[in-house]
Amino acid sequence: MKNKSLLMTVAILIIAMSSVAQKTDTFTDKRDGKTYKTVKIGTQTWMAENLKTTYYRDGSEIPNITDKDSWSNLTTGAYCSYDNSTGNANTYGTLYNWYAINDNRELCPSGWHLPTDAEWKTLEMALGMSHTNADKTSWRGTDEGGKLKETGTTHWNSPNTGATNTNGFTALPGGYREYDGTFKNIGSYGLWWSATETNTTTVWDRALSYENTNMYRYNSSYKVAGFSVRCLKD
Predict the structure, then answer these.
(1) What residues have CB less than 8 Å from 35, skipping those under 6 apart?
(2) Tens digits of per-residue pLDDT, 72-108?
(3) Torsion (CA) 182, 183, 185, 191 in degrees, nearest 10
(4) Which end of the chain is more exposed for a tag (fewer CB within 10 A), N or C?
(5) What is the DSSP string of 10-67?
(6) Do 116 and 107 contact (CB within 8 A), yes or no?
(7) DSSP label at residue 184
(8) What are the domain boundaries of the chain?
(9) What confidence tens digit (pLDDT) does each residue in 59-78 have?
């Protein structure tokens, strides 16, 4: 009887794990020829890298704003590299203000879109977060953030707490650009836009930290800030 009970427990665990098991692939963005790794987690397929494009979907160029003061006064779409370094962009992806991701020319390539707040919650719940916790703000859940973070300290600062990258999402700490145009926290934090506004000036977003295993959800990010982007398959 004990062996039968053990087998049933193992079977249940296998079924639970298969619901979020990763299925990896690649996608090439026709705009600039960049190829991205992709991963299926639960019912969703995500890019497993931060977006790096400098073009809208229609092929028009997104302005690259390097000057601090110019960035802080923007009300239109723009991108930048952390510390205006192309090396950082190649590794961590490009930082975009919210006006770029909300432009009707579309930032994500055809067949992909910027995830809404609800779609981020779907990801979090596929990783094991309860619906109640997913609806909360600030740091929520238990180890869901660790499941998304790249392992080791090549890119994340030590100790990179709880990083397992269980599902191949490979989240990187690309830092961000503040509303005043300053760059902050590369190596310590990754911040990602959602497509869901909270009011005329702020948006729902997500963050991961080198010292946390859970996920941060907040609704006070200014649209002029510069965050990373992960596209979700339509």
Answers:
(1) 26, 27, 28, 29
(2) 999 999 999 999 999 999 999 999 999 999 999 999 9
(3) 100
(4) N
(5) HHHHHHHHHTT--EEEEEE-TTT--EEEEEEETTEEEESS-----B-TTSPBPPB---
(6) no
(7) E
(8) 2-233
(9) 999 999 999 999 999 999 99
